[in-house]
């Protein structure tokens, strides 16, 4: 899809897709727990309900940070789905994520403060692997542009199997799934009350929800890149299978500590990501 | 050439005038006027030479060579005199100074290198350095007027040596201009020693035990480095196949002829830019007054160190030694970034961050491709501006809240809005897209992944902790305890506002204009060195401008339309005491909420990280030298 | 159309309950009753909640807590007092430290009798509470939006 068109489709459709995925997530989780679960459209009902609540803040800067969070997540996805530079998309994602962290710091509340610290630790944990993934794709596909990576016909997954595994690792962190949902969770994990979003309510919480939908669609797009060579139908199915796998992990594990998260993520980035990157570099450039 | 002469000599004259000027009002005038003149001159130089080829200026004057050698002797003598104040383990310092002087004299008096016809030159890179010294340096000198006034009000136990302080600041500017415009290695060496001298004098300004010890530490490590420089000059004067002290000519000869002096001079450069294993002097130098930290130890002097390493980048390209240099830089970047996470003292965070970013520049220089040098120069520009801004902000904050600890900066965005804004701009300018440092880091990543993926992996691991410690700091500044009010009193002076305002504006403008900077200044330099330039991908530039625009427009929009929201208190399990930040504890007493950032002291040990970093770096240095000899 | 009926988020607070009613509330979340079918989520955060399920009576120690939690909830909101203790103090009504029911501190919209109240009754109460919630939402839409400081 050509640049601006792809970006526009993303901006318009990603919330719908993201919300549906959220609904499917809740139903599948419920079935795993022998429950019925809510209707598939439940996340949309949640967001619409939140928009109807009275806007309330603890700190007058909160809404500014939350708005910037949404805007930059949309920018991230727009860059990605517009076929742009994958590294630029990752950097824009960082900007958005920082704004959410600032929104959690602003109210000076213990729970959201710890949520913010943990979110930063999570970012520190997944950053190396994410960058190595982008670099691996560059070395194999010859370009940092998503447009070119998608068109790479020889099969990214075959060249980057270890990077894919490492990426799944950090995907668990990014999608906020147990065992790495340290800073906030969509489930009833109440260790930090609601972590990052403790002091957000009403419309700002709705904005954060929608931003998370955009973010999830972006992340699944990343997963799609590994399967793009199989053709759109199979690739989408594979991506969905990965998402189901993440749901399984989420329901099986309890929340772990940040020390474990950082150590294991960095270990994975080095052993899986680093080694794979060096190998493909040698394969494609003939030297080390 | 007259402009270069002006830039080197005028600060010297200003320095001498200020040395005898006790009157505060007159000093203020002289400093402000000199700063403006220096800035204008460096801009004029840039205007004349940007985009054009390198220009060389012939000077027939053997007397000048001898005069500079005499200058080396004078500096050495003065330093030896000051070495009366050393303690036991610093005994190596006077020994090294004497050895270095002997080597230099032996080289200049005995050697017969081909005469350097054009000892002064201007090219794209040195013009950029000139702009940094002229604009950022001058702003810091203006800022220092207000800062030192507050400094002596707060510390009336420290003797007022402001005459020599400003003398040394301007002497330093003169030395820096000399370093970046010298084509003759011996001349550059003299100016290099001037900057070492200035650093020594300024670190020890307060004359406290800590300051003096750290001044000697800096002197010692820098002298170890400049011994390498002196040996390089000796080699080039006597032992090289084609003895010559012409810097640019040497670089043009490539690895075959220039590798030995390149390594030796880069060794000096890396000591001056506090790369591992020489990083401790920069950390210790933070005891100096903040303008010193900003000018010497982040924006300018340490940039001279990486300046020479980047100058030799074409010589390092494709060589094993170059790889060794790059690995030292990459290792420094990783280790210093990890160490910065554990620091709550704002100046130490800034110091570690400086060391880390300089490591990145050195890594680019070691890689030596056109892309890498492009990244290195961008890093130099953006880092000088943003770090200078941050140091100056921290200085102003320290004088107002009485602390340089990040934990004490809570709620600054309400209590001192202006200062908080410049700090946030500075922090964002250091790591966030679309600002310059991120652009530079991005180009580094691309350059590394094309040349040496191990470096790219080091960069990936190193940039993770940077996000953590910068965001932590920003979070503390924007975290507002309920009931916080705007602080009365302690308004910033005009000088401080000028410096902070201009630097903040420049941070944003250089980001917006970086394609222009790249094509007008850096690209021609790259073309002359490598025969090819680096172009900026138009679509990415457009996206980054959009992001910058959003970062400017959204706050403005919120300023005008804050929106109406009800106000409530933060969640403290319902035990809130009224509207305050306190809660009732289990013994029914009110406790104030006290929040502290994570410094991960148990997870990352600063001492262990720096120790292991130094050991590995030392091994890499030995390996590089061995690779050179074999 | 208000979406409150489709997505009522619940906060459960135990004032001074013996935990009997609390266990019954949590039983509603289990697969046997599964209130998530109605979109009900148990959030522990008053700022995210629409309905406050409160059990147990009010005593000296939790008087301020109950009021604070209620104030921190965003409008429109509804309080459901579950069990005899929350309604009137229950069998502890005569105790020196108990201030009778929750209504002495915050306005209650729905009462659930029982000791302990049954899950079916609790779910029924929440459904009735949704009706009250809708009414409040309608009223809120008509009044001008403004900021008032809440303690």
Quick overview of this protein structure:
Chain A is mainly α and 288 residues long.
Word description of this protein:
The complex is a heterotrimer of chains A (288), B (630) and C (151). Chain A has 288 residues and is mainly α. Chain A has one domain. Chain A has helices at 3-32, 42-51, 62-81, 86-105, 110-141, 146-151, 156-159, 161-174, 202-227, 232-252, 258-285; one strand spanning 56-57. In chain A, helix 1 (3-32) packs across helix 10, helix 2 packs antiparallel against helix 9 and helix 5 packs antiparallel against helix 8 (161-174). The longest helix of chain A is centred in the middle third of the chain and has 32 residues, at 110-141. Chain B has one domain (2-480, 491-559, 600-629). Chain B has 25 helices and 5 strands. Chain B has helices spanning 2-19, 24-49, 62-82, 92-110, 124-154, 162-181, 185-203, 209-239, 247-253, 255-272, 280-284, 290-299, 301-311, 313-316, 320-341, 346-367, 370-401, 412-415, 417-431, 436-451, 453-478, 494-512, 514-530, 538-560, 606-629, and strands at 55-57, 120-122, 566-567, 582-584, 590-592. Chain B has a two-stranded antiparallel sheet with strand order 1-2. In chain B, helix 5 (124-154) crosses helix 23. Chain B is globular and about 85 Å long. The two termini of chain B are 42 Å apart. The mean pLDDT of chain B is 90. With 151 residues, chain C is α/β, with parallel strands linked by helices. In chain C, helix 1 crosses helix 4. Chain C has a single domain (4-142), classed as Rossmann fold (3-Layer(aba) Sandwich). Chain C is globular. Mean pLDDT of chain C is 89; it is low at 147-151. The interface between A and B is large, with 67 and 62 residues. Strand 1 of chain A pairs parallel with strand 3 (566-567) of chain B.
């Amino acid at each position: 899809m050509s640049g601006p068109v792809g970006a526009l489709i993303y901006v318009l459709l990603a919330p719908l897709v993201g919300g549906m995925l959220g609904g499917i997530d809740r139903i599948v989780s419920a079935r795993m727990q022998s429950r019925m679960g809510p209707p598939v459209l439940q996340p949309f009902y949640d967001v619409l309900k939140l928009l109807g609540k009275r806007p309330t803040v603890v700190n007058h800067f909160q809404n500014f940070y939350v708005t910037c969070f949404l805007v930059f997540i949309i920018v991230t996805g727009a860059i990605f789905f517009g076929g742009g530079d994958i590294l630029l998309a990752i950097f824009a994602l960082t900007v958005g994520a920082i704004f959410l962290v600032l929104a959690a710091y602003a109210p000076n509340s213990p729970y959201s403060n710890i949520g913010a610290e943990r979110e930063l630790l999570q970012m520190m944990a997944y950053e190396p692997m994410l960058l190595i993934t982008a670099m691996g794709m560059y070395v194999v596909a010859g370009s940092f542009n998503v447009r070119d990576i998608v068109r790479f016909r020889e099969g990214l997954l075959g060249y980057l199997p270890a990077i894919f595994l490492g990426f799944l690792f950090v995907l668990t962190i990014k999608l906020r799934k147990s065992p790495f949902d340290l800073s906030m969770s969509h489930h009833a994990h109440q260790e930090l009350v609601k972590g990052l979003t403790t002091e957000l309510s009403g419309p700002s919480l709705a904005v954060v929800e929608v931003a998370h939908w955009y973010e999830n669609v972006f992340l699944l797009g990343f997963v799609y890149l590994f399967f793009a060579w199989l053709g759109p139908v199979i690739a989408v199915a594979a991506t969905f299978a990965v998402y189901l796998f993440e749901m399984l992990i989420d329901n099986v594990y309890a929340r772990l500590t940040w020390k474990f998260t950082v150590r294991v993520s960095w270990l994975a980035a080095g052993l899986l990501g680093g080694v794979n990157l060096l190998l493909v570099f040698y394969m494609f450039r003939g030297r080390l | 050439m007259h402009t270069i002469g002006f830039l080197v000599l005028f600060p010297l004259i200003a320095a001498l005038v200020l040395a005898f000027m006790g009157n505060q009002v007159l000093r203020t005038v002289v400093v402000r006027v000199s700063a403006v003149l220096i800035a204008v001159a460096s801009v004029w130089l840039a205007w004349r030479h940007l985009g054009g080829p390198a220009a060389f200026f012939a000077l027939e004057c053997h007397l000048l060579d001898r005069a500079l050698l005499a200058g080396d002797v004078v500096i050495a003598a003065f330093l030896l005199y000051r070495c009366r104040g050393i303690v036991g383990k610093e005994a190596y310092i006077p020994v090294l100074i004497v050895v270095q002087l002997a080597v230099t004299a032996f080289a200049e008096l005995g050697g017969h290198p081909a005469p350097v016809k054009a000892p002064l030159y201007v090219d794209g890179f040195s013009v950029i350095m000139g702009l940094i010294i002229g604009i950022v340096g001058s702003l810091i000198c203006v800022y220092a007027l207000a800062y030192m006034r507050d400094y002596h009000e707060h510390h009336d136990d420290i003797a007022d040596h402001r005459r020599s302080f400003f003398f040394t600041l301007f002497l330093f500017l003169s030395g820096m201009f000399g370093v970046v415009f010298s084509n003759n290695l011996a001349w550059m060496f003299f100016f290099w020693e001037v900057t070492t001298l200035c650093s020594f004098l300024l670190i020890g300004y307060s004359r406290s035990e800590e300051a003096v010890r750290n001044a000697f530490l800096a002197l010692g490590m820098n002298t170890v480095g400049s011994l390498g420089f002196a040996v390089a000059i000796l080699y080039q004067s006597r032992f090289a196949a084609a003895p010559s002290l012409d810097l640019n000519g040497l670089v043009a000869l490539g690895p075959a002829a220039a590798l030995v002096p390149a390594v030796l001079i880069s060794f000096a450069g890396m000591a001056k830019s506090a790369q591992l294993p020489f990083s401790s002097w920069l950390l210790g130098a933070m005891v100096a007054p903040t303008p010193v930290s900003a000018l010497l130890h982040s924006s300018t002097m340490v940039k001279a160190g990486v300046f020479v390493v980047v100058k030799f980048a074409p010589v390092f390209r494709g060589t094993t030694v170059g790889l060794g240099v790059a690995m030292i830089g990459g290792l420094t970047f990783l280790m210093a970034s990890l160490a910065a996470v554990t620091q709550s003292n704002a100046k130490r965070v800034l110091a570690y961050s400086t060391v880390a970013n300089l490591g990145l520049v050195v890594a680019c220089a070691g890689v030596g491709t056109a892309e890498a040098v492009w990244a290195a120069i961008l890093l130099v520009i953006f880092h000088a501006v943003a770090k200078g801004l941050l140091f100056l902000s921290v200085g102003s904050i320290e004088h107002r809240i009485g602390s340089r600890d990040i934990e004490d900066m809570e709620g600054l965005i309400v209590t001192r809005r202006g200062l908080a804004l410049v700090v946030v701009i500075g922090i964002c300018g250091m790591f966030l897209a679309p600002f310059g440092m991120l652009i530079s880091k991005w180009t580094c990543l691309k350059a590394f992944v094309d040349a040496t993926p191990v470096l790219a992996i080091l960069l990936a691991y190193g940039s993770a902790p940077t996000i953590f410690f910068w965001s932590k700091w920003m979070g503390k500044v924007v975290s507002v305890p309920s009931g916080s009010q705007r602080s009365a009193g302690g308004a910033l002076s005009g000088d401080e506002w000028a410096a902070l305002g201009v630097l903040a504006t420049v941070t944003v403008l250089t980001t917006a204009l970086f394609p222009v900077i790249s094509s007008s200044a850096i690209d021609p330099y790259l073309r002359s060195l490598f025969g090819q330039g680096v172009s900026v991908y138009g679509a990415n530039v457009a996206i980054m401008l959009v992001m910058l625009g959003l970062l400017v427009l959204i706050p403005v929009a919120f300023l005008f339309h804050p929106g109406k929201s009800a106000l409530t208190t933060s969640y403290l399990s319902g035990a809130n005491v009224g509207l305050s930040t306190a809660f009732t504890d289990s013994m029914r007493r009110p406790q104030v909420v006290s929040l502290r950032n994570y410094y991960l002291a148990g997870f990352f040990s600063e001492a262990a990280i720096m120790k292991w970093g130094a050991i590995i770096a030392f091994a890499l240095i030995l390996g590089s030298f061995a690779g050179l000899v074999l | 159309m208000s979406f409150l009926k489709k997505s009522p988020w619940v906060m459960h607070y135990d004032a001074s309950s013996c935990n009997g009613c609390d266990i019954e509330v949590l039983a509603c979340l289990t697969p046997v009753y599964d209130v998530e079918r109605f979109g009900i989520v148990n959030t522990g955060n008053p700022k995210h909640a629409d309905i406050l399920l409160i059990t147990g009576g009010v005593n000296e120690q939790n008087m301020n807590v109950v009021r604070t939690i209620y104030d921190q909830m965003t409008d429109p909101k509804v309080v459901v007092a579950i069990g005899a203790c929350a309604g009137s103090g229950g069998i502890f009504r005569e105790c020196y430290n108990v201030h009778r029911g929750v209504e002495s501190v915050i306005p209650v919209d729905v009462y659930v009798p029982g000791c302990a109240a049954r899950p079916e009754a609790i779910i029924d109460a929440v459904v009735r509470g949704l009706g009250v919630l809708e009414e409040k939402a309608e009223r809120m839409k008509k009044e001008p939006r403004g900021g008032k400081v809440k303690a």
